[in-house]
Every structure is written in structure tokens, then in C-alpha cells.
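Action item from last week, closing it out:
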Amino acid sequence: MNRCIRLARFAILLLAACLGTTAQAHRFAPTLLQLVELAPGSYNVVWKTPAQATSPVPLTPAWPEDCSVASASPAQPEGTGLVTSLQLHCAGLGGAGLVGQTLGVNGLAANQASVMLMLTLLDGRQYQQVLNAEQPRFTVPEEPGAGQVMTDYTVLGVDHIWTGIDHLLFVFGLLLLVGGNVRLLWTITAFTVGHSVTLSLVTLGFFDYPVALVEFTIAVSIFWLAVALSQSGERSLFRRHPWWLAGGFGLLHGMGFAGALAETGLPAGNMPLALLFFNIGIELGQIAFILLTLLLWQSLRRLVGEWQAQLRPLPVYLLGALSALWCIERGLEVLA
């Protein structure tokens, strides 16, 4: 019994800590290093970083010593990031240009960040590479490969879902709503179909949307789910047909996924492939989160024993409190 009381106190303290801090969730702020060859040895560079820094150590691009910055524009706000345009001259590299040379980004480990590196050469060759703390450098090969696109955009999808606290909390709420049974399969499938539709339509340019409003409605979807979880009885609409809730709100979350992908960019020659594997990455990250949550729950069930019923409302309170804070924070941004 004492062990259960301590667990309850810990959960309450965790809730209080969340309430006492600024509500932060995934903001569409990827980091992008894009180089386009304009003439032999001359490159236009777009360097995009999040507007909100996570570390005092700056993120800085790195290129060969024979390259020098001829001009640079002041950083301009764009969406949730800051964009700087540079002109890079690499006349000393010879006819091969950046092929065989190494590009990278400094400060990735300190910022726990990943960067999408995109390089387009005069002859049409295009390269994409995800840079992170484990691989902060990329040596440009002679020929790009479709396999690299598949790998990179799968990694981007997994990274996006695992750093998107609001998306993960919605999935967690669905798990609380239906439990770990066959209904979970149908509910998560409905959520997947919903966000896949809008992710594809927005990314391919069929329609646009106000980012601040979508962020607000995503927070509302989590709060609505928390309210549904707080209502007792199996006769409620959402408990009887959770896939409608999951699919409908999945359309909103898909716009959030598309916002990150649009700001990162898609390779012009492999857009469908990159979109497919970005979505696959999201699903792999989502499945891993569900499996980890179920495993953790099985461990906690043995720990709390007969106190399961008393402690079950705590995650619902946490879900509702965080989503309410996000609703207020993002609602003010919509009105600003």
C-alpha cells in the first residue's frame, strides 16, 4: 500500500511540474541546409534553423575549406524558423565541385537536432541526407541513390513523431480509450488513414492552411479526447465508435505532419518516394510508441496491483491539463 501511495504522489508531482511550466509541443521548426549549384563552383545556400533555440551552442553549416561565403542576407523569420540565404564560392575545388567533398553541420549533439541536407547540382543530380549527432557529416558520392531517399525520409518520419509530444499524447489517449485489444488496431488504422490523406494532399500542393490555426485545433483534439476519457460508461459515442474520432482528428494531425515536411522540403525527382517513406517513418515511430507504452503498462500493473482503478484517472488528468495549456497558448497565437 505504501508503494502505491508513493506512486500516486509521484504522478501528482509530475502533473504539477507539467502545469508549472510553459506548455511546449512539437513546433514545425525543422533545420534545413539546401545548396543549389548556379554555375561551376558557385552555389546558392539556404540555411534554415528553428526560431526557438534549444541550446546556447549555435547550429552552423560546414563546407570544404576551399569554399568561402561571398554574401549573406540577414536571417528572416519564415514560419517557425529563421532563414538565411548565402552565396558560396568553391572555385578551388576543380571541375567535380562538391562531388567527393564533405558537407556538415556543427552543434547537432548539443542541440539534439537533426538536419535535412539537400544538394542540387547543375547536371540535375540531387542528394538528400539526414545529419544528426551520430552522423554530422556527409561526403557527396558520385551518384545519388533512391535507397538514400527511402532511408532519410523514414528517419525524418520517426524523428518527427517522436519529437511531437502532442501527436504522441493523442495516440496515448486513443490507447487509453480502447485498450490493447483488436479495437486498438482499427482505431490506430483510422488515425493513420486520416493523417495520411491530409499529409499527402498538403505536401503535393492541393491546398494550404494557416499553421497557427491547425496547431490550435490539434491541441483541441487532444483536449476533446481527454474529455471523452473522463466520461464514464460504455454507451458514449466515442467509446462505441472510436475510429470516427481517430480518423476525423487524424486529418488535423496530418496537416501538422505536412507542415514539418513542407518546411524541410521534398526532392524534386523523388517526391512520391520521399512522401511514402516519410509516412512509413511516422507509422514505425507510432507503432514503437504503442508497443513501449503497452510494455510499460504491463510492468506497472504488477506494481500497483489492486490500486489500478484508483490510479487510472491520473494519465487522463495529465492529458487534459497539458492539452488545455496548449489550447490557451495556441489560441492566443491565433488571435495575435
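Closing note: The chain has eleven helices and ten strands.
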